[in-house]
UniProtKB/TrEMBL annotation:
Superkingdom: Bacteria
Organism: Alteriqipengyuania halimionae
Keyword annotations of the record: Oxidoreductase
Protein name per UniProt: Aldehyde dehydrogenase family protein
SUPFAM superfamilies associated with the record: ALDH-like (SSF53720)
One of the protein's GO biological processes: gamma-aminobutyric acid catabolic process
Pfam family, one: Aldedh
Length: 477
């Protein structure tokens, strides 16, 4: 077990604790124990954060790119040095197995390193006219960013939210999730310890809707960055639209996985089963709807269920644990009700379909097959450890199912036929596609969706350009 750190707001480089502020409890999802007391920002705190962000922006936008890069590199190094400690804090507040938490911290470090390089490659261009006149296209940081990160990846989500803006020369006020605050604070602290000024990277907590209304209602904030549900995303997009603020929206998904009958079933299962239950399925790019071609359907479905039943569920601190608890009490409640609805409508429950133990937010790795399309779980993001497996006759039917929903985040296809891979890639409505694999995320590739999964990208060069404005300068010689 780990000592859980005391919690604070991070405003202007100062750690502001619970004294005189409303508080919220932080709960260990494996034990339901209260492990921390989190201060909520008052309206005055938020005004101070905004003033700082305004000042910080003026400093950071004028800080030369190599100096910004050095700070990001140093923060990456600090995250690596602190990764064991941060991973244990992450497991305590979020539940996932410690090695998964450590992987998250290391990914965050790699992202800062990537952005350190990328911030030195913010090039404009010059248009030279035949008469000797010229126009310059220049990039400028958009301004202070208000960023809201969820609880499922408490390190990566915060690193994504702050990394792009800082690389671009923006200041940022981030709200890590109130349920997983200490990991987000550790990421921000690494940046401050690395030399990012306290006015440039700040962290606040409170009632999410109060904070987002306050920050987005301020003319100081020039950009919104949000990761979370489509429903909240639409609400925040409207708030941002009132101030015509730029926005990056990374919202829900319902990942279709097309498995064609030219594949070896065990080869596919070896990869998709661990991917499905990673982070107890609480992953926006989780493979969810398994769209399986007729002749391999039974073998795939039964093999999936056998493997799901073998997954070791337990406290994320136990070395034997392969899947931890869900992150909060809402998740098993939602999964339970979605599975009951699917069962009532005729789905077969081949694995799981029940809670595990009577303490903590544990839910068994579950497999549902022959799930009617009208079941809620086939239409709403389950965000939990549930695989939905259905049978389809051919490529057209499989693609129709893949594109049936409004979600368009990650999609997966498994086939040995190269021409079919190309057809499927073109036809599929998604921001990210994995072919014969399960990974859709890399620090140097844009991460984001289409349709109701949002717009804009994080990671990759696009994670920086998303925080830049263009200025065309027409100079008369
Ligand atoms: P939720 O939809 O209320 O919250 C999702 C996230 O948005 C949380 O981090 C929350 O703090 C934040 N949030 C909520 N209202 C906000 C507001 N007005 N302003 C700013 N931030 C706000 O509920 P939840 O139970 O936390 O999550 C439920 C669903 O959210 C999941 O089923 C899943 O679909 C989605 N989700 C997606 C991601 C992702 O990575 N895309 C991450 C977490 C949750």
């Amino acid at each position: 077990m780990t000592d859980y750190p005391s919690l604070h707001l991070l405003i202007g480089g100062e750690k502001l604790g619970t004294d005189g502020r409303e508080t919220r409890d932080v709960i260990d999802p494996a034990t339901e124990e209260t492990i921390g007391s989190l201060p909520c920002a008052s309206s005055d705190d938020l005004d101070r954060a905004l003033e700082n962000a305004d000042k910080g922006f003026k400093v950071w936008r004028n800080t030369p790119a190599p100096k910004r890069a050095k700070a990001l590199q140093k923060a990456a190094q600090l995250l690596r040095e602190r990764s064991d400690e941060i991973a244990r804090i992450l497991t305590r507040e979020q539940g996932k197995p410690v090695p998964e938490g450590k992987g998250e911290v290391l990914y965050s470090a790699n992202l800062f390193d990537f952005y350190a390089g990328e911030c030195q490659r913010i090039y404009g261009r010059t248009l030279v006219r035949p008469d000797g006149q010229a126009a310059r296209i220049e990039y400028e940081p958009v301004g202070p960013v208000a960023a809201f990160a969820p609880w499922n990846f408490p390190a990566i989500n915060v690193a994504r939210k702050v990394g792009g803006p800082l690389a671009a020369g923006c200041s940022v006020i981030v709200k890590p999730d109130e349920e997983t605050p200490a990991t987000g604070l550790a990421v921000c602290q690494a940046l401050l310890d690395a030399g990012v000024p306290g006015e440039v990277c700040q962290a606040v907590f409170g009632v999410p809707d109060d904070i987002s209304r306050h920050l987005l209602g301020s003319p100081i904030v020039k950009k919104l960055s949000f990761t979370g549900s489509t429903e909240v995303g639409k609400h925040l997009a409207k708030l941002a639209a009132e101030g015509l603020k730029k926005a990056t929206m990374e919202l829900g998904g319902h990942g279709p996985v097309l498995v064609f009958d030219d594949m070896d079933v065990d080869t596919v299962l070896d990869q998709v089963v661990p991917a499905k239950y990673r982070n107890a399925g609480q992953v926006c790019v989780s493979p969810t709807r398994f769209i399986v071609q007729d002749s391999i359907y039974e073998k795939f479905r039964d093999g999936f269920a056998t493997r799901a039943k073998a997954i070791q569920v337990g406290n994320g601190f136990d070395e034997a644990t392969q899947m931890g608890p869900m992150a909060n009490a809402r998740r098993p409640d939602t999964i339970e009700s979605m599975i009951a609805d699917a069962r009532d409508k005729g789905a077969q429950v081949l694995a799981g379909g029940e809670r595990v133990g009577n303490q903590g937010f544990f839910y068994a790795p579950s497999v549902l097959a022959d799930v009617p399309l009208e079941a809620e779980i086939m239409n709403e993001e389950p965000f939990g450890p549930v695989a939905l497996i259905n049978r389809y006759a051919d490529e057209d039917a499989m693609l129709a199912e893949a594109n049936r929903l409004q979600y368009g985040l990650a999609a997966y296809a498994w086939t040995q036929d190269r021409a079919r891979r190309q057809r499927v890639t073109r036809a599929i409505e998604a921001g990210m596609v994995a072919l014969n694999g399960t990974n859709v995320s890399a620090v140097d590739a844009p991460f984001g969706g289409v349709k109701w999964s949002g717009y804009g990208s994080e990671d990759g060069a696009e994670g920086v350009t998303a925080c830049l404005n263009l200025k065309s300068v027409h100079e008369t010689l």
